[in-house]
Design goal:
CATH topology: Arc Repressor Mutant, subunit A
Structural class: mainly alpha
Order of helices and strands: HEHHEHHH
CATH superfamily: Winged helix-like DNA-binding domain superfamily/Winged helix DNA-binding domain
Helix content: 25-40%
Number of helices: 6
Oligomer: single chain
Number of domains: 1
Largest sheet: 2 strands, parallel
Number of strands: 2
CATH class: Mainly Alpha
DNA sequence: ACAGTGACAACAT
DNA sequence: TATGTTGCCACTG
């Protein structure tokens, strides 16, 4: 896994259906505790890769912010896409786009798997 | 080489 | 709780 983005995608692909994690937690797993913002940027870059089948089934909806809230805000009156996707897989998202982390937080990867992704 | 850009997060009000 | 501020970092033109 050469670059940071690819490492982020590798982790995101491992998030189980019906679970969520945060940008910061992913950054921490990759050994970059302060790169949370870059994680969000990596996911944002996915929309330019939609054509590539390798990124087609990326469960990006399972990444929310540290407060357990969806960070993507689309224009008012339109249903939140990320909330829809999460509800489809059984995650309860309230009207304020919040998810109960005590229930749905993903435990994360074991260090062995992390090393495999980061390449050490 | 360098300034601009966010799907962040921690902290202070 | 809800905002606002500030520091951060990888990537881009």
């Amino acid at each position: 896994m050469r670059n940071f983005y690819e490492q982020v995608y590798a982790v995101v692909r491992r998030i189980p259906r019906g679970k969520v994690t945060s940008y910061g937690r992913i950054a921490n797993m990759l050994g970059r505790p302060r790169a949370a913002r870059a994680v969000g940027y990596a996911l944002n870059a996915l929309k330019d890769k939609q054509d590539d089948p390798a990124y087609a089934n990326m469960p990006w909806q399972r990444v929310i912010n540290s407060q357990g809230r969806i960070s993507i805000v689309n224009r008012e009156n339109s249903a939140n896409r990320q909330a829809e996707l999460l509800r489809q897989e059984g995650v309860v998202v309230d009207d304020n786009l919040r998810v109960n982390l005590d229930v749905y937080l993903w435990e994360g990867l074991h260090w062995v798997e992390i090393d495999d992704i980061v390449g050490r």
